[in-house]
Model the fold of this input.
Amino acid sequence: MTDFTASDAVPAPRKGSLLTQDARTKQRNAKEARFRMMGLIAVTIGVLSLVGLLTSILASGLSSFQQTYVELEVYLDPAKLDKKGDRNPDDIAKVSTFGYTPLIEAAMLSAIERTGAVSDVANTKAAGELISKEAPATLRDFVLANPDLIGETVQFDLLAAGRIDGFFKGRVTMESAALDRNVSPEQLQLAQQLKEAGILRTKFNWAFFTAPDASDTRPEAAGLGVAIIGSAYMMLIVLVLSLPLGVAASIYLEEFAPKNRWTDLIEVNISNLAAVPSIVFGILGLAIFINMVGLPQSAPIVGGLVLTLMTLPTIIIATRAALKSVPPSIRDAALGVGASKMQAIFHHVLPLAMPGILTGAIIGLAQALGETAPLLLIGMVAFVREYPGGPPEGFFDPAAALPVQVYNWTQRGDPAFVERASGAIIVLLVFLVIMNIAAILLRRRFERRW
Amino acid sequence: MYDAPKFAETKVTNNDIKIAARKVQVYYGDTHAIKDVNVDILDKTVTAFIGPSGCGKSTFLRCINRMNDTIDICRVEGDIRIDGEDVYDKKVDPVQLRAKVGMVFQKPNPFPKSIYDNVAYGPRIHGLARTKSELDEIVEKSLRRAALWNEAKDRLDQPGTGLSGGQQQRLCIARAVATSPEVLLMDEPCSALDPIATAQVEELIDELRQEFSVVIVTHSMQQAARVSQKTAFFHLGHLVEFGDTGQIFTNPKDERTESYITGRIG
Done:
């Protein structure tokens, strides 16, 4: 320690004014300024793209929450609906939707006459085309439910055709109508007059949330009802299966399992599973749950199981991290007063890890809610108009899912479906935001416990 | 030179052996941490373990209530008997052992629960109270023993983590005595405390020895001299010297002990 020589001695202090920056300091400061600048640019790019994304989705999707309806007084003509006149439900049911079209056309004509609209629309058929092809079905359902009202005049709010709806939303113009075989400029003019007369009305589109999907020719009737139910069922299955399984697996691995080659292997595999492309889980689901076990296709149960497999690694990783972050002194304290290992974990470690576990679980659920690829493989892309039944039987009925519905609608020809798809994305985003808020609230609640 | 310490005024009043350790060896993986330790710890006596950092005194302390079981690579050989029963016997459940041998840790570690729940936790899991009033009684008695009752009685439902450091440590002591243990192990209980809190805890230890056998690990030789009747000096995993505190500090038999207490090693 004492073999210092003069040359090893501390160098003489450098002389220099504190008021002027030396070259090194300037260089360092410039570096820091550059780094800050780059960070700011990165954040700006991120924020701008988010704003751009949101505006484009909102711009093209918000209009899907409004829908044009035609208010018509329809005479339920007994001569057409119940020729025998005995109100026999079986006979009434024999009248197909085509039988209702003339009633609507007649109602439409009388409405046009009443408003005194002057129109070049040549015939009754062209006037009837202002109304959605879905309308006769609406009418038929109503009549089957209320056969007593046959012979009366009933007021209906019927969907306007997609092109007419698009005209009021700015999607369809006179120029585009001139090139369109589905709609003519004359029809648009008539629609404009009817709107001024108050027969056409734009209302909030509740049916978008409740109605099932509709075919290519009637985008105005397409809704998210089946998809929302399907997604809700799948989330329920994922939550019920993956949270207990994931937490139990994490607790075992973190607290009880011996640290050896096998547990190391399991750990590495769990981390890798979290990074496996989701479509692989879809293939797995198809092979195991549908082909081997024989569960039905397009069913929320299969989707839920596949998404559970996908969510498990996320939950396990988050839970283990949360368990690890609990200070060991708490475990020691519990063991020190004679708690068993399980008591120490369930009474002290788990409550402290709860916020982390819940956050992980909700992130996993949100991921699962937005997952599309694996669902395509297990047939959730099917066109489903029937609502699935109530749980648990409904888990085995065919259903759609929100993200798959978005994918589905973007594949269709009619531009009205683009609007619907954007609207569905907004609904999906709202659900995700709700889940994240739930995560934050739960976190707060559990953190406040001490 | 080392100032003449003030020794615990009360002398050893009891010669019943509570804990008897014979040829205890502890290994952490390949490291031989405790070598051939033989020691007899008396009932109703404060025994201090002193020694430089890493000498194995805490490790040995944690062997007594088998807290080392939680460390995977730790292996204990030899014989530790409490009242003649081998604590490492296959039939012994560490949970029962730890109810009998309480522990207070270096850093105050109250549960993030109310003061009441902190103290009541042990009695609850061991089923020591049948009714709420019995539990209340245990909590009050334990807090009184830990000299915390007057400060805490009006805020029993407030979190234990909101107390000051010294109060937290006394809460941990209350929690440890609430299960009515027979032995109380204290692993440097005052190292995180200021002198006033330390004095309170030391006073407490002296009172606790009326009922318990207390084993305390400490880095402060003054503290060992103040609170203990017996002192054991550990060095590099060996128990170098064990005897009456007065004798260890005034007339050590081993030169390593003398070097340590006079501040030449450690």
Notes: Residues 16 and 22 of chain A are 9 Å apart (CA to CA). The interface with chain B takes residues 258-259, 327, 329-340, 343, 347-348, 352, 449-450 of chain A (CB under 8 Å). Residues 23-61 of chain A form the longest helix (39 residues). Chain A has 19 helices and three strands.
